[in-house]
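hiii so um. not sure if this is the right channel but i have a protein structure encoded as tokens and i wanna go backwards to a sequence. like what aa goes where. can anyone help
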């Protein structure tokens, strides 16, 4: 495959938002061309294996797009998912991702990852796909995230789980059925019930 002109290569990197060298190679952009664009100041290396066009606007979600590219099998969960759904006042420095119990923990230089291990329906149910900086990002739904917070209350704090439940009840009126389904999947129905009764 012939190497595309630099302006076309740059346009592709801008369209992808966050690009990895292997992904660019499938479009005919060899690593030597990528590194030449970096040396020319047209492309920036944001983390190991992560490149963006220099004019790429950096949003608050940039870190999430980066992680989604580096860990395509992960699903944003717990505090990170709460933040994406606007259900918390917390602004954690770590990025929380769910992985299968058998998956190897990814090694990223940045950002710091917190891995939660999920299995069965708790891993596969309630996944939504969002588009952040032209990158498909997998995140658990708001209702699934609230149930997960109660399941992992010892890791993130019961106060965070209760705050998430209150915020969910305010923003998602009529979401009780969905919440009950995920509480069953995560086996936290009995734990959540007193808090549901309190805000009913």
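sure thing!! here u go:
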């Amino acid at each position: 495959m012939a190497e595309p002109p630099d302006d076309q290569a740059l346009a592709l990197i801008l369209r992808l938002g966050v690009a990895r060298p292997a992904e660019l190679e499938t479009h005919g952009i060899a690593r030597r061309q990528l590194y030449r664009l970096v040396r020319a100041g047209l492309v920036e290396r944001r983390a190991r294996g992560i490149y963006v066009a220099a004019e790429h606007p950096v949003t608050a979600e940039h870190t999430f797009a980066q992680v989604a590219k580096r860990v395509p099998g992960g699903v944003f969960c717990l505090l990170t998912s709460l933040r994406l759904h606007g259900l918390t006042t917390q602004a954690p420095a770590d990025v929380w991702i769910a992985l299968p119990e058998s998956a190897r923990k990814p090694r990223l230089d940045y950002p710091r990852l917190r891995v939660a291990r999920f299995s069965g329906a708790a891993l596969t149910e309630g996944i939504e796909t969002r588009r952040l900086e032209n990158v498909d990002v997998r995140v658990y739904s708001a209702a699934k995230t609230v149930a997960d917070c109660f399941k992992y209350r010892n890791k993130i704090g019961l106060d965070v789980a209760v705050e998430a439940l209150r915020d969910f009840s305010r923003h998602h009126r009529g979401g009780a059925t969905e919440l009950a389904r995920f509480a069953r999947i995560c086996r936290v129905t009995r734990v959540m019930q007193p808090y549901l009764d309190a805000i009913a």
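oh and The first strand starts at residue 43 and ends at 47.
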